[in-house]
Amino acid sequence: MRIEKKVIIMSDLNSSSEFTVSSVLRCAWEVLWKRPMFFFGIALIINTIFAIFIAIFSKYVAIFSKYVRVVHGAYGVPDLIFHNDAKYLLLFILLCSIIYLIIFAIYQCAITYAAFSLLMDSWISVPDSFKQYASRIPSVILGIVIFHITILLTIFVSSFVAIPLFLFFSKIISPEIISIVPITFVILLIINWFVFIPACMIEQVGATKSLSRSVELTKGYRMKTLCIVLLMFLVTYLFNDIAFAIFVFLFESEFIALVFFVLFSSIAGAYIWLLPAITYYKLRVAKENFTLDSLVE
Length: 297
What we know:
Elements lengths: L20 H12 L3 H32 E5 L5 E5 L3 H34 L6 H8 L3 H33 L5 H4 L1 H13 L3 H7 L4 H12 L3 H30 L2 H19 L2 H14 L9
Antiparallel strand pairs: 1-2
């Protein structure tokens, strides 16, 4: 099966063309329950890999501290002084990051392809489906890299706006309030580029085009998209951190707690990571009025 540039949708999931948060959540739930074990399985794989990386980093953080010492440089700004052997550890961290980036990109491609296959009432085996979206993985990886680099640059640049505010208003405004400036810019960036991976996959466009396409689709619906982004953030980070703390308290073993954490986050992630694809789908329905035309084999 190949999804052409013209998006195909199911009529029974398109009873209303209005884009709402509830319609996105409901549609994602319906798609999830068509193949729950598939979505849970791939979420379990990605979370297990992530947990392994966390365990490795936790183990070597002591080694890293031996290779790095902090000294106060000019104007009291701390500088990091690296031992020569630290380069091997940093290289190892970089390698793990690259591996995780590739796996995460494949995971996002699989989620998006599966979601649209189910929206079209079609399903093929995982190996066959991989052949269909494998060509999109490099563009998705490039898009993810651009996305994260832009976020880092946004934090860096917006901090220059926040620093003068802090210098002039430090007596009446706390640093926590001023830190809202870079956070606001980052949130706006995430909202604008929230659906770039589905755009890259379904419309078969490059990384930069998919990013601009995401900006185009979210325009006019950014407050509703923000609600979906906040939901993903709460479940992915806040709830997961609370769950891990509870598991550590209950089992008094970080390993057992990590196992339960992976299972818990995989159950939540199976649903949460469907939201970008379904948001993209609903935005196209609302803005471009797509209807069911045909199925492309």
